[in-house]
Design goal:
253 residues, mainly alpha, two-stranded antiparallel ribbon, two-stranded antiparallel sheet, 41% helix
């Protein structure tokens, strides 16, 4: 609505400034301020920290920061030094000890009674070639003459049995799954019962269709009529299929 014209509107008006409400001050402000001052460290305040000034007499002295060893105890002084494994320079060997053993005779007896040394089997690659040990060359058929040569190891047979058992279990599980999914044949009694049930359902739907009004002028009536007609067509198709085929199979879900 437009304002009415008046001469008084031409007069200057004083601007009325809105009065601000008083600023809110919490009643807990002094206690909070005191807690903050007490918990604040000296080095977190502005300006120099209020700490004691070091005395000029306690100046840094030479070698004052070097680590010092602890004083030696008397127990350590009283301990004896360990025995040396090396003989001292002043030690003298024991002299004058003689043995009555006849080394020549003992060596001759040992050579006579001892077993002869078996010669090592060697091979030479050529006429003026070097000699090599025959056992480590791979030319001696020692692995073929072993008792377990050609025998299948136990771990291989065990592994093959485990794999065979696992394969059989898998095949059995697949067969069971296929049996469950296999198709089931309907018996004559079940087929006749199913046919009678479909005919009964068709009669009920047909009775509802006959009960419809003659004049169908609304959308719900049209939709209901179309629904009943589709149900009757589906039931007639199912009845026709069951009557034509005497053997019927049903897949298990």
């Amino acid at each position: 609505m437009a304002a009415q014209e008046s001469v008084y509107n031409l007069l200057p008006r004083l601007e009325e400034k809105p009065v601000k409400p008083p600023r809110y001050i919490s009643t807990f402000r002094p206690s909070v301020k005191l807690e903050i001052e007490q918990s604040k460290a000296q080095w977190k305040t502005m300006g120099p920290a209020k700490v004691a000034v070091p005395s000029p007499k306690n100046f840094l002295k030479k070698h004052s920061k070097e680590p010092t060893l602890p004083a030696r105890k008397k127990e350590q002084e009283s301990k004896k030094l360990p025995a040396l494994s090396v003989p001292r320079r002043t030690d003298r060997p024991v002299m004058g000890i003689q043995s009555k053993k006849n080394f020549i005779k003992t060596n001759a007896v040992a050579a006579i009674t001892g077993l002869p040394k078996k010669p090592q089997h060697i091979y030479v690659d050529r006429r003026q070639g070097d000699k090599y040990l025959l056992e480590t060359s791979g030319l001696v058929p020692k692995y073929i003459k072993k008792k377990d040569y050609g025998v299948t190891p136990k771990y291989v047979t065990q592994r093959s049995e485990e794999t065979k058992k696992a394969q059989e279990e898998y095949e059995n599980s697949v067969l069971e799954y296929l049996k469950k999914k296999a198709m089931k044949q309907l018996s004559d009694e079940e087929r006749e019962c199913l046919l009678q049930g479909l005919k009964k359902n068709w009669e009920e739907v047909y009775r509802e269709f006959q009960c419809l009004s003659v004049e169908i002028d609304t959308i719900p009536k049209k939709l209901y009529k179309g629904k009943l007609e589709s149900q009757m067509k589906q039931l007639e198709h199912d009845i026709d299929v069951i009557e034509k085929h005497k053997v019927i199979y049903i897949a298990n879900e």
